[in-house]
């Protein structure tokens, strides 16, 4: 019985490690080109908070800057009710360029963040594997330098999110502030 349980746990761990390894990272990642203002255009997640808050979400503005020690300071401002809320996060660079870690001070969750692809001037596709006590989850973000992106980029975001095991009801193109509702993809 114990050997069977260990085998199942071993296979589950191997599957989780394989899933993380299957997430690509931007070739020749250039961190300095990722800095500046971005708009969150798309968000996909299988986490419980996303399912609960999906209908309230809107596009937010994110400023990415490099710290003196080479990590990323990520400041996101988003509408919440009738006010704007700002959240600061420090993404610690990992050995592989384009890969970062973050631990939420509020929830204690650990985030493995990967810049999947970007052309730095138009869009960035970012995938995050989140580990927390209630179980793992996946989040995919689509950033844009402008408030709109081409249908091809939106479709690439949707396609990549599905490749990560996310369903259509877990994928959201975020409405701009002031717009009513959002369109799922």
TrEMBL record:
* The Lipocalin/cytosolic fatty-acid binding domain, residue ranges: 35-177
In the record, biological process GO terms are:
mast cell degranulation; prostaglandin biosynthetic process
Q: Which reaction does it catalyse?
A: prostaglandin H2 = prostaglandin D2
Q: Provide GO CC annotations from the record.
A: extracellular space; Golgi apparatus; nuclear membrane; perinuclear region of cytoplasm; rough endoplasmic reticulum
Judged by the first EC level, this protein's enzyme class is: isomerase
Into which family does the record put it?
A: Belongs to the calycin superfamily. Lipocalin family.
This chain's protein is named Prostaglandin-H2 D-isomerase
Provenance organism: Onychorhynchus coronatus (Royal flycatcher)
């Amino acid at each position: 019985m114990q050997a069977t349980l260990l085998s199942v746990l071993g296979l589950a761990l191997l599957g989780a490690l394989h899933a993380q390894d299957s997430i690509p990272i931007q070739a020749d990642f250039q961190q300095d080109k990722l800095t500046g203002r971005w708009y969150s255009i798309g968000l996909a997640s299988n986490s419980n908070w996303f399912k609960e808050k999906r209908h309230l979400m809107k596009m937010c503005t994110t400023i990415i800057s490099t710290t003196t020690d080479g990590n990323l300071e990520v400041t996101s401002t988003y509408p919440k009710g009738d006010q704007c809320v700002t959240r600061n996060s420090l993404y610690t660079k990992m050995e592989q360029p384009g890969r970062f870690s973050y631990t939420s001070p509020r929830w204690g969750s650990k985030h493995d963040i990967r810049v999947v692809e970007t052309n730095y001037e138009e869009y960035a596709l970012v995938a995050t594997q989140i580990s927390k006590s209630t179980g793992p989850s996946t989040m995919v973000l689509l950033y844009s330098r402008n408030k709109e992106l081409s249908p091809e980029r939106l479709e690439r975001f949707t396609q990549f999110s599905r490749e990560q095991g996310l369903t259509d009801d877990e994928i959201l193109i975020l409405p701009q502030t002031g717009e009513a509702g959002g369109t799922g993809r």
